[in-house]
Every structure is written in C-alpha cells, then in structure tokens.
C-alpha cells in the first residue's frame, strides 16, 4: 500500500507572517545565510534522536537543492541552538547575527505512541521576527513528509511561491523484471510500484486535478493508453485504437488529453476526452507528430515533428492552427516540456552521440544549454513551481532519474538503486 494512502498530517498555521523583507536572489547568485538547528524534544523523556535527524536531513537536502541558501556551520552554533525557542521573544537573535545568519529554522517534536507532533519555525534574524510557524500532527512514520511540507512553506514565505518538495514523481523502472510504473517522493524515498502489467509501461503524465495518471502500456500487445487512480488502484484502458496510442498529456484544466494516434495510418496528434472519446484531430501530414506538451494556459501545444527534416520542436494553438517551428538549430531535438510559468520550454538535442537538455523561450529566443558531460539526459519535466527539472540520465548502460535546478545547476540522482529508471513526470500539489 502506498505510503501516500495513509491518513496524514494536520498542518496548522500558527502565525500568519507579514510579507518577508529578506532579499531573495536567484540560485547561483549570492545566497542567504541560513542557520538550520536540530529539532529538540518537547519532553526529554520522549527524545527520539532518529526523528530529529531525519527532519533535519530532509530540510537540509531540500533547502540545498533550492540553491538560495548558504548554511551556517552547526559547529559554530552557540547556546540558543540548544533551546527550543518557538516564539520570537524566546530566541537570542544576537547570537545568530554574530554568526552571520539572516534566517533561522528552529523546531521541536513530541512522540506520543505512534503519533508525532512537530512544531517548526522560520525566523528573520535581521528583523528579529517570526516569518512562518507550522504545527504538524501525524504518524511517527510521517516525519519526512512533515519536513517536506515545511520546506515548501519556507520557500513560500521567502519567495511568495510554494516549494515542490511535498509532491511526487512518477517514473518507469524495470526493477521487477518488467517496465512498470512507480511513484516516489521528490528526494527518491518511498519508491512504490503501482502497475503490474508484466509488459512495457511508458511515458506517464499526472492529472492536474486529481491523483491519477495516464500512461502507455503494451499490456494487451498494443501501445494503448491507460488511466489509473492512484489511491483506489482503479485502472481503465482509455484509448486502444489500432496502431499507436502514445505520449498522452493532460490539458492544464484536466478535461482533455493530447496524444499521438495512428489509427488513420500516420502518427498524428489528437485530442480525446478523459473518457477516451475522440474530440479533435490536431495535425494531418505525412510525417510523425509526437510528444505534445501544453502551455500553462492550455491554448497552445508544443510537440515534436520531423516535417522539416530531422525531429524539431513546433508550436501550434490548441485548435491545430498557427503552426511554427521553435528550435532553430540541431538535427535531432526531442521531448519538449512547457514550464508551468510559461516562460520557457525544455527539450533535448542529440549531439556527438548523446542527448543534452536545453531550454528556449516560446518565441524561439534565448536558447540555453543546461546539461554537459557524459551520458544522455532525456525526458525533462518541470516541477510544479518551475524551479526544477527532473530527467533521466543514461550512462554506462544504466538509467537513473536526476533532478536539477532550472538553470542546470545542483544536479543530483534521486532514483533508488536497482533497475533501469526513465520517463519521469512530476505531480502537482499533493494533498494527503
């Protein structure tokens, strides 16, 4: 059973912060000095050092990936780090200013049987005030999710945009001996297989309005599209037309799905309803049109086509009109992914025998290469806030899932060991 199925935490806002006054800078520029203390037990008799260590490790990993912070060395912490201090009046801000900290994370926890209560705080050291306070109540095994949730709140408090750490990543793995669909946390923990097709499953996409996925499977010896409800496990074959039924992508309002069908002889793009009914044919030519990706407003679609020679990224409106080529360079581009902010489109390009990830503005300007070095990087997908990209890396006959910042820095492997992992997709906000 998925960990995500557990009745999860009650998160209570304890303070409604005023607008943050801390200067926010983009990753890669000057960072904010942050002091991250170990959460302390409310009752010394209920001390659970492993809980405190797990919460701190998750917070540190998430905030490090954000690329906005420089961490104050815990070895330099003074006596205030050993006091819980959940109120501004209880914090010795002078100590933290002495260490150069601009923001401070403190917290406490209490374990009562299998129940875990975490109090987490974010302070503005310079202005000596509370920026964010949360109380989380859940099961003892929920400590990681509580830390992910507070990481999201830290980013929201400092930038105005919630973080993506309490979401999920779907991916394909052959760890069972077959290519099946899995879910994992954003940091790669709690990987769980959710299909048992004992065949080939490919190319998942999350519904924007519910906890369900669409994907392609060869379960019935044809590449058909399936829709699966994650919590109930309910699964239906959505499109099983003759030939290809591949690369399904939900419209941002969740009401339609763009995909490639070939039942009329050539692989073209179509729209179907969430019940599988055919709504509209979007492209019609003798070439191959695949890999649709919706603009955030649902009014345009980026896709891959070889209609002008090698595979290139094109854009058209949602009616299939006003077609234009996006990628000006390269001979083999692939897998476009429109950012949730609408500002950039990620794609891959094959050069010197390997794929690398690029981004470009929707008007075709400002192309940027994000990845370098050995191995092929493919299938980029954006985090729901547009801060990060998840992708697959193939190197030395191994396939892993990696995540990096949107500027290409901070890349790290997240897929668990065992099996070949590919085709990631990032969920939207994930309420428990």
TrEMBL record:
Q: Which UniProt keywords apply?
A: Periplasm, Signal
Mainly localized where? periplasm
Q: Name one GO biological process term.
A: protein import
**Protein localization:** Periplasm
Q: Where is the TolB N-terminal domain?
A: 21-129
- Specify the superkingdom: Bacteria
Give the span(s) annotated as Disordered.
411-432
Known SUPFAM superfamilies for this protein? TolB, N-terminal domain, Tricorn protease N-terminal domain
Q: Which Gene3D superfamilies match?
A: TolB, C-terminal domain, TolB, N-terminal domain, Tricorn protease N-terminal domain
Q: Does the keyword Transport apply?
A: no
Q: Name one Pfam family in it.
A: PD40
Q: Which residues form the signal peptide?
A: 1-20
Q: Which GO terms describe its cellular component?
A: periplasmic space
Q: Which family does it belong to?
A: Belongs to the TolB family.
Listed PANTHER family: PROTEIN TOLB, PROTEIN TOLB HOMOLOG
What is the protein named?
Translocation protein TolB
Organism for this UniProt entry:
Geoalkalibacter ferrihydriticus DSM 17813
Taxonomic lineage of the native organism = Bacteria, Pseudomonadati, Thermodesulfobacteriota, Desulfuromonadia, Desulfuromonadales
């Amino acid at each position: 059973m998925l960990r995500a199925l557990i009745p999860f935490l009650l998160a209570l806002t304890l303070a409604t912060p005023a607008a943050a006054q801390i200067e926010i800078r983009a990753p890669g520029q000057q960072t904010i000095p942050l002091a991250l203390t170990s959460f302390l037990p409310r009752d010394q008799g209920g001390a659970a050092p492993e809980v405190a260590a797990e919460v701190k490790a998750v917070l540190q990993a998430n905030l490090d990936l954000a690329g906005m912070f420089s961490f104050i060395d815990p070895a330099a912490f003074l006596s205030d780090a050993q006091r819980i201090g959940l109120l501004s009046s209880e914090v010795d801000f002078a100590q933290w200013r002495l260490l150069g900290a601009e923001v401070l994370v403190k917290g406490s926890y209490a374990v009562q049987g299998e129940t875990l209560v975490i109090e987490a705080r974010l302070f503005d050291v310079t202005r000596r005030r509370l920026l964010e306070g949360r109380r989380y109540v859940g099961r003892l095994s929920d400590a990681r999710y509580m830390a992910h949730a507070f990481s999201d709140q830290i980013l929201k408090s400092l930038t105005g945009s919630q973080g993506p750490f309490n979401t999920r990543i779907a991916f394909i793995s052959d760890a069972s001996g077959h290519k099946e669909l899995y879910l994992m946390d954003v940091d790669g923990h709690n990987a769980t297989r959710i299909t048992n097709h004992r065949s080939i499953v490919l190319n998942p996409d999350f519904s924007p309005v519910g906890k369900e996925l669409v994907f392609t499977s060869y379960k019935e010896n044809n590449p058909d599209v399936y829709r699966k409800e994650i919590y109930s496990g309910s699964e239906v074959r959505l499109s099983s037309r003759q030939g290809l039924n591949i690369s399904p992508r939900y419209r941002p309002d969740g009401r339609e799905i763009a995909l490639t069908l070939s039942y009329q002889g050539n692989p073209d793009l179509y729209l179907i309803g969430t019940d599988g009914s055919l709504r509209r044919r979007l492209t019609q030519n003798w070439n191959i049109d695949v890999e649709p990706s919706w603009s955030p407003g649902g009014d345009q679609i980026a896709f891959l086509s070889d209609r002008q020679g090698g595979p290139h990224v094109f854009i058209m409106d949602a009616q299939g009109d006003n077609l234009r080529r996006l990628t000006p360079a390269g001979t083999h581009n692939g897998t476009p992914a429109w950012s949730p902010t609408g500002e950039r489109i990620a794609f891959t390009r094959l050069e010197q025998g390997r794929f690398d990830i690029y981004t470009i503005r929707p008007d075709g300007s400002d192309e940027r290469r994000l990845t370098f070095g050995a191995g092929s990087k493919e299938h980029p997908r954006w985090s729901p806030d547009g801060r990060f990209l998840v992708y697959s890396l193939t190197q030395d006959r191994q396939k892993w899932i990696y995540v990096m910042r949107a500027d290409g820095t901070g890349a790290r492997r997240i897929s668990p060991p065992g099996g070949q992992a590919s085709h990631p997709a990032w969920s939207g906000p994930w309420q428990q």
